[in-house]
Design goal:
By secondary structure, the chain is of the alpha/beta class. The chain folds into 2 domains: about 190 residues, Rossmann fold; about 170 residues, 3-Layer(aba) Sandwich (Rossmann fold), CATH 3.40.50. Helices cover about 45% and strands about 15% of the residues. It has 14 helices and 13 strands. Helix 7 links the parallel strand 8 and strand 9. The longest helix has 23 residues. The radius of gyration is 21 Å and the shape is globular. The termini are close together.
């Protein structure tokens, strides 16, 4: 049985982020293809190996310690292939470097890149400065990697810079893959509850996810009999507090904020009236894929690769408000979009499609 070392900074259920959920799904898919998959995490002790890596500062203070820890893993496992989930995690870069030095084939599974400072704050400006310093290394890690699996091989946005550069370096070694839903196998168990209509927004609370825009939308749709429900897994405390102040000042009764641990995400998506994404930047929102899986459509700003999913793309909040009202009064249009959502998911994003994409690993490991 061929050994694959699968590296990710985040894994679910400890991290129910896009990266964490996808890494765990990819482990499952690769095991179903009869690979011996050995998992490595930054600091999740539930995986096969945990490097104990907590932050970039830790690495800067003691780089040789982490380099040696990763070397020990490779020497012990002796993998035929090293697969890293996303760049910009430090742990991925270390393993790519070691795979190159040890002549082990490597694959990058792209989750897009984060580049621009989205707010004028010291920490984001510093991060952007580090990114500028990192650019030559970024190119180097792409160059020494053998293959890249991309969410969108045609998107030209900066969020897909890794794919666009890799295509220039090694155009014939870019494969397309699609993220899939953790709820696909549960779909038949959906219990529809006759609750008040609610519009669901999922994700961590942060200015990038832009939940403040949702408050403005809620203000201008108060005449509709709908509730806006924000469910988060973690938050920026300052931004979180500012949202609550805005909700209180506006006297909004139609907006609810809940922590993920107090909900059942599967049931929340299954029973929502509509999904909404107000992020100012995205790569490929997993929550919208999961919505399409459960025959739910969405409204979203035109970010990342959301146009590959079935929903209504909006250029601004005013368009979103107009479309919420249109769908509220036009059930036929909404039902049509929901049917298209389900069909598109089956055609492009199902477990079978991901299995088909990852079967390319058979070509890589011969």
């Amino acid at each position: 049985m061929k050994k694959i070392l699968l590296i990710s900074k985040e894994w679910s259920p400890k991290y129910n982020t896009g990266l964490g959920l996808c890494s765990t799904k990819h482990e499952e898919i690769l095991k179903s293809l009869n690979y011996d998959v050995i998992t490595v995490s930054s600091n999740d002790k539930h995986k096969d190996f945990s490097i104990g890596f907590k932050s970039f500062i830790n690495f800067i203070l003691n780089p040789f310690f982490y380099l040696n820890e990763c070397k020990k893993v490779i020497n012990f496992v002796k993998p035929e292939l090293i697969v890293v989930e996303s760049l910009q995690t430090v742990i991925s870069e270390i393993f790519l470097y070691l795979s190159y030095k040890n002549s082990i084939k490597s694959v990058i599974v792209s989750h897009g890149v984060s580049i621009l400072p989205y707010k004028i704050r010291f920490i984001y400006i510093l991060r952007f400065g580090l990114w500028l310093f990192y650019i030559p290394l970024f190119y180097y890690f792409l160059k020494i990697s053998d293959y890249l699996f991309s969410l969108d091989a045609e998107n030209k946005s900066f969020r897909h810079l890794d794919t666009n550069l890799f295509k220039i370096i090694k155009s014939n070694k870019v494969f397309l893959y699609n993220n899939t839903s953790r709820f696909e196998d549960l779909k038949k168990t959906v219990t529809i509850k006759d609750n008040k209509k609610y519009i669901l927004c999922l994700g961590y609370i942060n200015h990038i996810k832009n939940q403040a825009a949702l408050i403005e939308i809620a203000k201008k749709t108060k005449e509709l009999d709908v509730v806006y429900k924000i469910i988060y897994n973690y938050f920026d405390k300052k931004y979180f507090n500012s949202l609550n102040i805005k909700i209180k000042k506006a006297g909004l009764k139609n907006i609810v904020i809940l922590h993920e641990k107090d909900t059942n995400i599967f049931e929340e998506i299954s029973n929502c009236w509509l999904l909404i994404n107000v992020s100012i930047t995205e790569v490929m929102p997993l929550s919208l894929i999961e919505g399409n899986c459960l025959s739910k459509t969405f409204l979203s700003y035109d970010v990342g690769s959301v146009d590959r999913l079935t929903g209504i793309i909006n250029q601004n909040s005013e368009q979103m408000i107009f479309n919420i009202k249109s769908l509220y009064h036009n059930t036929f249009l909404k039902e049509k979009l929901e049917n298209l959502s389900s069909n598109r998911y089956k055609a492009y994003y199902s477990n079978n499609k991901l299995l088909e994409s990852f079967s390319k690993f058979n070509e890589i490991i011969k």
